[in-house]
User: Fold this.
Amino acid sequence: MYAFDYTRPKDLAAAAQSFAGSDEPVYMAGGQTLIPTLKQRLRRPSLVVDLGALPELKGIAVAGNLVTIGAMATHAEVAASADVRRAIPALADLAQHIGDPQVRNRGTLGGSIANADPAADYPAAIVALGATVYTPTRSIADADFFTGMFETALEPGELVVKVAFPVPKRAAYMKFRNPASRYAIVGVMVAETASGIRVAVTGAGPSVFRVPEMEAALAKSFTADAVKAIAVPVDDLNADLHATAEYRAHLIGVMAARAVVAIA
Assistant:
Protein backbone atom coordinates (compact mmCIF):
# COMPACT_ATOMS: atom_id res chain seq x y z
CA MET A 1 0.00 0.00 0.00
CA TYR A 2 0.96 3.64 -0.41
CA ALA A 3 1.05 5.84 2.68
CA PHE A 4 -2.15 7.72 3.51
CA ASP A 5 -3.78 9.48 6.43
CA TYR A 6 -6.66 7.89 8.32
CA THR A 7 -9.52 9.31 10.37
CA ARG A 8 -12.57 7.81 12.08
CA PRO A 9 -15.03 10.69 12.65
CA LYS A 10 -17.88 10.53 15.16
CA ASP A 11 -20.62 12.20 13.09
CA LEU A 12 -21.55 13.06 9.53
CA ALA A 13 -20.50 16.68 9.83
CA ALA A 14 -17.00 15.73 10.92
CA ALA A 15 -16.76 13.14 8.15
CA ALA A 16 -17.74 15.70 5.52
CA GLN A 17 -15.29 18.24 6.93
CA SER A 18 -12.41 15.75 6.84
CA PHE A 19 -13.31 14.68 3.32
CA ALA A 20 -13.49 18.26 2.05
CA GLY A 21 -10.13 19.14 3.60
CA SER A 22 -8.11 16.53 1.74
CA ASP A 23 -6.82 16.43 -1.84
CA GLU A 24 -7.65 12.79 -2.68
CA PRO A 25 -9.94 11.48 0.06
CA VAL A 26 -11.97 8.29 0.02
CA TYR A 27 -14.75 7.03 2.28
CA MET A 28 -14.51 3.53 3.73
CA ALA A 29 -17.59 1.58 4.79
CA GLY A 30 -16.90 -2.13 5.35
CA GLY A 31 -13.69 -2.02 3.34
CA GLN A 32 -14.43 -5.16 1.34
CA THR A 33 -13.68 -3.38 -1.93
CA LEU A 34 -11.43 -0.53 -0.82
CA ILE A 35 -8.87 -2.54 1.12
CA PRO A 36 -8.11 -4.99 -1.73
CA THR A 37 -7.73 -2.08 -4.16
CA LEU A 38 -5.35 -0.38 -1.73
CA LYS A 39 -3.31 -3.57 -1.42
CA GLN A 40 -3.13 -3.89 -5.19
CA ARG A 41 -2.20 -0.19 -5.47
CA LEU A 42 -5.21 0.51 -7.67
CA ARG A 43 -6.19 3.39 -5.38
CA ARG A 44 -3.89 6.01 -3.93
CA PRO A 45 -5.92 8.21 -1.57
CA SER A 46 -4.44 10.94 0.56
CA LEU A 47 -6.99 10.24 3.30
CA VAL A 48 -9.24 7.32 4.27
CA VAL A 49 -12.36 8.46 6.13
CA ASP A 50 -13.67 5.46 8.11
CA LEU A 51 -17.47 5.61 8.48
CA GLY A 52 -17.65 2.85 11.08
CA ALA A 53 -18.37 5.11 14.05
CA LEU A 54 -21.18 7.19 12.54
CA PRO A 55 -24.46 6.52 14.40
CA GLU A 56 -26.50 8.26 11.66
CA LEU A 57 -25.64 5.43 9.25
CA LYS A 58 -26.66 2.52 11.45
CA GLY A 59 -29.85 0.75 12.42
CA ILE A 60 -32.76 -1.15 10.90
CA ALA A 61 -36.35 -0.01 11.35
CA VAL A 62 -39.78 -1.04 10.13
CA ALA A 63 -42.55 1.53 10.04
CA GLY A 64 -45.77 1.03 8.15
CA ASN A 65 -44.97 -0.35 4.72
CA LEU A 66 -41.26 0.52 4.74
CA VAL A 67 -38.14 -1.28 5.90
CA THR A 68 -35.40 1.32 6.36
CA ILE A 69 -31.82 0.10 6.65
CA GLY A 70 -28.85 2.26 7.55
CA ALA A 71 -25.99 2.38 5.08
CA MET A 72 -23.54 0.89 7.60
CA ALA A 73 -25.75 -2.11 8.41
CA THR A 74 -23.72 -5.21 7.58
CA HIS A 75 -25.00 -8.01 5.41
CA ALA A 76 -25.00 -10.24 8.49
CA GLU A 77 -27.16 -7.76 10.40
CA VAL A 78 -29.68 -7.57 7.54
CA ALA A 79 -29.78 -11.36 7.26
CA ALA A 80 -30.26 -11.85 11.01
CA SER A 81 -32.79 -9.05 11.56
CA ALA A 82 -36.12 -10.41 12.79
CA ASP A 83 -37.81 -7.28 11.43
CA VAL A 84 -36.39 -7.79 7.94
CA ARG A 85 -37.16 -11.52 7.97
CA ARG A 86 -40.75 -10.80 8.95
CA ALA A 87 -41.35 -7.93 6.53
CA ILE A 88 -39.23 -8.88 3.48
CA PRO A 89 -37.92 -12.45 3.84
CA ALA A 90 -36.41 -12.31 0.34
CA LEU A 91 -34.16 -9.41 1.34
CA ALA A 92 -32.88 -11.25 4.42
CA ASP A 93 -32.29 -14.35 2.30
CA LEU A 94 -30.38 -12.30 -0.29
CA ALA A 95 -28.12 -10.87 2.43
CA GLN A 96 -27.57 -14.32 3.92
CA HIS A 97 -26.03 -15.56 0.68
CA ILE A 98 -23.61 -12.69 0.03
CA GLY A 99 -20.01 -13.87 0.11
CA ASP A 100 -18.89 -15.82 3.17
CA PRO A 101 -19.26 -15.16 6.93
CA GLN A 102 -16.21 -12.88 6.96
CA VAL A 103 -17.58 -10.75 4.11
CA ARG A 104 -21.09 -10.67 5.60
CA ASN A 105 -19.80 -9.45 8.94
CA ARG A 106 -17.75 -6.62 7.43
CA GLY A 107 -19.48 -5.65 4.18
CA THR A 108 -22.27 -3.08 4.32
CA LEU A 109 -25.41 -2.23 2.38
CA GLY A 110 -24.25 1.31 1.64
CA GLY A 111 -20.77 0.29 0.59
CA SER A 112 -22.13 -2.38 -1.72
CA ILE A 113 -24.57 -0.19 -3.62
CA ALA A 114 -22.20 2.78 -3.79
CA ASN A 115 -19.60 0.52 -5.39
CA ALA A 116 -22.22 -0.75 -7.88
CA ASP A 117 -20.38 -3.93 -8.80
CA PRO A 118 -22.29 -5.49 -11.72
CA ALA A 119 -22.31 -8.86 -9.93
CA ALA A 120 -23.45 -7.57 -6.53
CA ASP A 121 -26.72 -8.83 -5.06
CA TYR A 122 -28.30 -5.75 -3.46
CA PRO A 123 -28.93 -3.91 -6.77
CA ALA A 124 -31.52 -6.57 -7.68
CA ALA A 125 -33.38 -5.85 -4.43
CA ILE A 126 -33.13 -2.08 -4.85
CA VAL A 127 -34.72 -2.24 -8.31
CA ALA A 128 -37.16 -5.12 -7.81
CA LEU A 129 -38.60 -3.65 -4.62
CA GLY A 130 -38.62 -0.04 -5.83
CA ALA A 131 -36.37 1.17 -3.02
CA THR A 132 -35.31 4.75 -2.38
CA VAL A 133 -31.69 5.63 -1.59
CA TYR A 134 -31.13 8.58 0.77
CA THR A 135 -28.08 10.82 1.03
CA PRO A 136 -27.69 13.66 3.56
CA THR A 137 -29.32 16.09 1.11
CA ARG A 138 -31.62 14.17 -1.24
CA SER A 139 -33.44 10.98 -2.15
CA ILE A 140 -32.74 8.90 -5.28
CA ALA A 141 -35.30 6.54 -6.80
CA ASP A 142 -34.29 2.98 -7.67
CA ALA A 143 -34.54 3.62 -11.42
CA ASP A 144 -32.12 6.56 -11.17
CA PHE A 145 -29.48 5.25 -8.78
CA PHE A 146 -27.48 2.74 -10.84
CA THR A 147 -26.16 4.37 -14.00
CA GLY A 148 -23.61 1.85 -15.31
CA MET A 149 -20.80 -0.54 -14.42
CA PHE A 150 -19.40 0.68 -11.08
CA GLU A 151 -21.32 3.92 -11.62
CA THR A 152 -24.16 5.51 -9.65
CA ALA A 153 -25.99 8.83 -9.44
CA LEU A 154 -23.93 9.78 -6.37
CA GLU A 155 -21.92 12.97 -6.72
CA PRO A 156 -18.21 12.95 -5.71
CA GLY A 157 -18.08 12.79 -1.93
CA GLU A 158 -21.81 12.12 -1.58
CA LEU A 159 -22.71 9.45 0.96
CA VAL A 160 -25.52 6.93 1.17
CA VAL A 161 -27.20 7.40 4.56
CA LYS A 162 -29.98 4.81 4.36
CA VAL A 163 -32.18 2.82 1.99
CA ALA A 164 -35.96 2.49 2.32
CA PHE A 165 -37.48 -0.70 0.91
CA PRO A 166 -41.27 -0.84 0.38
CA VAL A 167 -42.66 -4.13 1.68
CA PRO A 168 -43.83 -6.24 -1.30
CA LYS A 169 -46.80 -8.56 -1.35
CA ARG A 170 -44.34 -11.36 -2.07
CA ALA A 171 -40.81 -11.70 -3.42
CA ALA A 172 -37.94 -14.12 -3.91
CA TYR A 173 -34.32 -13.88 -5.01
CA MET A 174 -32.44 -16.66 -6.78
CA LYS A 175 -28.88 -16.59 -8.02
CA PHE A 176 -26.41 -18.78 -9.83
CA ARG A 177 -23.25 -17.93 -7.97
CA ASN A 178 -19.56 -18.12 -8.65
CA PRO A 179 -18.41 -20.97 -6.39
CA ALA A 180 -15.28 -19.11 -5.27
CA SER A 181 -16.38 -15.50 -4.79
CA ARG A 182 -20.11 -16.21 -4.42
CA TYR A 183 -20.83 -13.19 -6.59
CA ALA A 184 -23.86 -13.56 -8.83
CA ILE A 185 -23.07 -14.87 -12.29
CA VAL A 186 -26.79 -14.21 -12.64
CA GLY A 187 -29.19 -13.20 -9.87
CA VAL A 188 -32.89 -12.51 -10.31
CA MET A 189 -35.38 -11.02 -7.87
CA VAL A 190 -39.07 -11.35 -8.68
CA ALA A 191 -41.39 -9.19 -6.60
CA GLU A 192 -45.09 -8.46 -6.58
CA THR A 193 -45.25 -4.85 -5.44
CA ALA A 194 -48.01 -2.30 -5.03
CA SER A 195 -47.22 -1.08 -8.57
CA GLY A 196 -47.18 -4.55 -10.12
CA ILE A 197 -44.74 -7.35 -10.90
CA ARG A 198 -41.04 -6.46 -11.10
CA VAL A 199 -38.21 -8.67 -12.35
CA ALA A 200 -34.71 -7.32 -11.68
CA VAL A 201 -31.51 -8.98 -12.90
CA THR A 202 -27.99 -8.57 -11.56
CA GLY A 203 -24.72 -10.18 -12.66
CA ALA A 204 -25.81 -10.58 -16.28
CA GLY A 205 -25.11 -7.09 -17.63
CA PRO A 206 -22.96 -4.04 -16.91
CA SER A 207 -25.61 -2.88 -14.44
CA VAL A 208 -28.83 -4.15 -12.90
CA PHE A 209 -31.83 -4.15 -15.24
CA ARG A 210 -35.49 -5.11 -15.42
CA VAL A 211 -37.10 -7.55 -17.88
CA PRO A 212 -40.42 -6.00 -18.97
CA GLU A 213 -41.41 -9.04 -21.04
CA MET A 214 -41.21 -11.29 -17.99
CA GLU A 215 -43.08 -8.77 -15.87
CA ALA A 216 -45.93 -8.63 -18.38
CA ALA A 217 -46.05 -12.42 -18.68
CA LEU A 218 -46.15 -12.91 -14.92
CA ALA A 219 -48.89 -10.30 -14.57
CA LYS A 220 -51.05 -12.53 -16.78
CA SER A 221 -49.96 -15.87 -15.33
CA PHE A 222 -47.77 -16.03 -12.24
CA THR A 223 -46.17 -19.37 -13.11
CA ALA A 224 -42.68 -20.58 -13.91
CA ASP A 225 -43.83 -21.60 -17.39
CA ALA A 226 -44.71 -17.97 -18.12
CA VAL A 227 -41.06 -16.90 -18.07
CA LYS A 228 -39.22 -19.99 -19.26
CA ALA A 229 -39.83 -19.34 -22.94
CA ILE A 230 -38.92 -15.63 -22.86
CA ALA A 231 -35.61 -15.01 -24.61
CA VAL A 232 -33.43 -12.23 -23.23
CA PRO A 233 -31.28 -10.52 -25.91
CA VAL A 234 -27.59 -11.28 -25.49
CA ASP A 235 -26.21 -8.10 -27.10
CA ASP A 236 -25.69 -6.17 -23.87
CA LEU A 237 -24.92 -9.08 -21.54
CA ASN A 238 -21.55 -9.77 -19.93
CA ALA A 239 -19.25 -12.46 -21.28
CA ASP A 240 -16.16 -13.62 -19.37
CA LEU A 241 -14.30 -16.72 -18.21
CA HIS A 242 -17.22 -17.63 -15.94
CA ALA A 243 -20.05 -17.57 -18.49
CA THR A 244 -20.84 -16.54 -22.04
CA ALA A 245 -23.52 -13.98 -22.79
CA GLU A 246 -25.71 -16.78 -24.18
CA TYR A 247 -25.36 -18.80 -20.99
CA ARG A 248 -26.21 -15.79 -18.86
CA ALA A 249 -29.32 -15.17 -20.99
CA HIS A 250 -30.36 -18.77 -20.35
CA LEU A 251 -29.70 -18.43 -16.63
CA ILE A 252 -31.95 -15.37 -16.38
CA GLY A 253 -34.92 -17.50 -17.38
CA VAL A 254 -33.90 -20.33 -15.07
CA MET A 255 -33.39 -18.11 -12.04
CA ALA A 256 -36.60 -16.16 -12.71
CA ALA A 257 -38.55 -19.41 -12.92
CA ARG A 258 -37.04 -20.63 -9.66
CA ALA A 259 -37.94 -17.35 -7.95
CA VAL A 260 -41.53 -17.67 -9.15
CA VAL A 261 -41.73 -21.25 -7.86
CA ALA A 262 -40.36 -20.12 -4.49
CA ILE A 263 -43.18 -17.62 -3.96
CA ALA A 264 -46.10 -18.81 -6.13
Notes: The mean pLDDT is 96. The chain is about 35% helix and 25% strand.
